[in-house]
Amino acid sequence: MTLFFARMTPASLRALLALAVVFVMLATTGWTAVRPHATTDPKAATLSAWLHGTIGSRKLPDPGAAPSVIARFFASLTSVQRTRLAERYPLVVGNLNGVPPSLRYLANRRAITQARATEVALAGGDLLTAAGRLVATQLVARYDSLLSGHRQILTFDPTGDGRVAEVLGNLSTADRVSIVVPGVDTDLLTFERADKSYSAPAGMARSLYGAEQAADPGASTAVIAWADYTTPSGMGLDASTGTLAERGATRLEALVGALPQTADISLFCHSYGSVLCGVAAPDLPAGQVSDITVFGSPGMRAENASDLHTTANIWAARDDNDWISDVPHLEFAGLGHGADPVSDSFGARVISAAGADGHPGYFAPGTTSLANFAQIALGRYSGVACADATTDCTQGL
User: Domain 161-397 sits in which CATH superfamily?
Assistant: First the structure.
């Protein structure tokens, strides 16, 4: 190893050092991840009960079964039996691909209500430190928000920092489905924000759904705010490797596999989420996923678009003021995520992000990036504004 470094040029050494430093910044940029207090794992307890449970003398299916198997099982049940399972095992039913979305929403509402009751007791008790009680209070507020109105929570898991996904529109009947995949420091507490709401996953999805409806009020669309993977956080170097992206890709592939096969699917991948989308791309259903759009991307763990081995159109955007442009786009010994998706050599369709104003602003109202995302989601490629003010990025579509 000493000989290897001795043979490197000064420029290469500087680039390697810069890569390590910048990815420490990448792992810690944004909102500081607030970790909930340690408690028992309610999902593990519910899963254990499910594995030993029955309904109408029938054994419950393996949670790891294919979505088609799960779908057939639930289709064979009566309405009363389905509701009973959602109420008895909410943290299983609410996270089970293949279960009808409406039943998942019901199960997750129950699971969130139960989680809220736990946090209310902890916030008012003496089992936690002052910091722990503050986190419990913040979680109560988050749960109150998720339970408000008629929000459609597709996945919910309070374990650790928590995971959640929300649907806007009718997922069962939509002709076009968009999935927003966020980046670092995403968890239950950062799923939505009061200020600059468009910079958090829930707000990103709302902005996109609103832009779709404004562009085509008659379109049958749905948008998923998908914060259902463990993202990099803290002071480590998780953001510089593909480990969490690989784990998240498996979850994303499972979600896509459970969506209606008649729906056209588009992915919108921000920051580290673009790493995940790059890893997942080769295993996503060919022909069903029509578009993968990355923005504020540190790379997709590929040297060019063809290395992604997908039939989907690859789109890329970056605002001129996005600090991600300072990240060295290379990969060395597992550190880094490869080529810059907006570079000419990568081969993506590079679109304008005018008005985004930095790393978190791509879904801000009035931005060209948001307008472009809506056009891509609707499959209206002729309305997409390219980065160079030409029509080159839409050639061949």
Answer: Alpha/Beta hydrolase fold, catalytic domain (3.40.50.1820)
